[in-house]
Amino acid sequence: MQISEKKVVTLTYELYVIGEEDEFEIVEVAGEDNPMVFLFGHSGLPVDFEKNLEGLKEEDDFDFILEPQAGFGEFSEEDIADFPMDMFKIEEGEVPADLLEIGNFIPFTNDDGSQITGRVYEVLADTVRIDFNHPLAGKSLKFEGDILNVREATQDELDHGHVHGEGGVQHD
Ligand SMILES: [Zn+2]
């Protein structure tokens, strides 16, 4: 059975980012003991990830590269926002030690109350610059893995837009 619409796919993968000197750095592994199970079209990964899998079948392997625009998008300077240093003085009027280390993840609340995570990008005298790009934005990604299983989705799974049973959502 080939991977296409209305199929449930179980696969393993290793995700690497490609560094500036073409070296591979591993960022994520879904191995045989914790494979990824998803309804085709609903993986939560970039659309092009799924496009590269279309037509593969059980026991096939894959190995492909997504350029940034096909992955999590280009890195955008517009997604870097400046905040006053005073905002981070949350411990007796002081900025907690280590809070503003470059690369630290900090939770923020949007105007609509939703949570988003930003990363400390740059620390100036009175200003902290926070990066809200996806952590993998601007990166070339390499995916490698094996297709373990392909099956027809049930009508319930199609209606819900996710997988039921092993590796999927468990309903009461
Ligand atoms: Zn469901």
From TrEMBL:
UniProt xrefs under PROSITE patterns: FKBP_PPIASE (PS50059)
Entry keyword set: Chaperone, Cytoplasm, Isomerase, Rotamase
InterPro entries: PPIase_dom_sf (IPR046357), PPIase_FKBP_dom (IPR001179)
Keyword Transit peptide included in the entry's annotation: no
Reactions catalysed: [protein]-peptidylproline (omega=180) = [protein]-peptidylproline (omega=0)
Entry EC no(s): 5.2.1.8
MF GO annotations: peptidyl-prolyl cis-trans isomerase activity
Main location: cytoplasm
Annotated PPIase FKBP-type domain residues: 6-96
Cell location: Cytoplasm
This protein's record includes keyword Transmembrane: no
Family: Belongs to the FKBP-type PPIase family.
Function comment: Also involved in hydrogenase metallocenter assembly, probably by participating in the nickel insertion step. This function in hydrogenase biosynthesis requires chaperone activity and the presence of the metal-binding domain, but not PPIase activity.
Name used for this protein in its record: peptidylprolyl isomerase
Originating organism: Lacihabitans lacunae
